[in-house]
Amino acid sequence: MVKRSSSASEKLVDKIVKGIQEVKGHEILTVDLRNIPNSVSDFFVICHGTSDTQVEAIARSVVDTVESELNEKPVHKEGTETAEWILLDYFNVVAHIFQPKTREYYDLEKLWADADVKQIEHQF
Predict the structure, then answer these.
(1) Is pLDDT larger for residue 40 or for residue 42?
(2) Which residue, 82, 88, 85, is CA-closest to 15?
(3) CA-to-CA distance for 58 and 61, rounded, in angstroms?
(4) Degrees to nearest 5, angle at CA 79 with 52 and 36
(5) Quick count: other Cβ atoms within 10 Å of Cβ 36?
(6) Which of 48, 77, 78, 92 gives 42 a disulfide partner, CB atoms 3.0 to 4.6 angstroms apart?
(7) How many Cα neighbours within 13 Å face the side chain of 121?
(8) Cα distances (angstroms) measured from residue 124 to each of 27, 78, 93
(9) Ordered domains of the chain (ranges, CATH)
(10) Sheet holding 43-48: strands in order across?
(11) What is the average pLDDT across 7-11?
């Protein structure tokens, strides 16, 4: 797998956020990990849905939006069986789509507090 340029990673983040907003994902954050030594990717995009149905819909919307606009598919997906936490791995950008209690428990925002975290304003 080849690392994308920062510009390509930023475009991917934008499309992931767009996919989340299409189905009204909640509390969308982008976590810029590029200045963190040995980070696992360039960015995390974190959000939550209010039910397993909405979490699944958010994940589907992200995959569809990224594929239609950038012609990319995730290299790995996890959590689709239970929809408590769906992870979509695009290599340099990883989308984390939680249910509220699971998001609170893992608290990725706090775990990566040294990164540049930006909250995305609601579009709905």
Answers:
(1) 42
(2) 88
(3) 5
(4) 115
(5) 15
(6) 92
(7) 1
(8) 12, 28, 24
(9) 6-117 (3.30.460.10)
(10) 76-78, 85-89, 93-98, 43-48, 26-32, 116-119
(11) 93
CA-to-CA separations, 44 to 40, 53, 70, in angstroms, rounded:
9, 22, 18
Per-residue pLDDT tens over the stretch 74-101:
999 999 999 999 999 999 999 999 999 9
pLDDT averaged over every residue in the chain: 92
Q: Give, as one character, the DSSP assignment of residue 41.
A: S
| Pair of tokens at residue 18 | 């767009």
Nearest Cα to 29, choosing from 4, 10, 43, 47?
Answer: 47
Helix axis angle, 52-70 to 6-22, nearest 10°: 140
Contacts of 102 (CB under 8 A, 6+ apart): 48, 84, 85
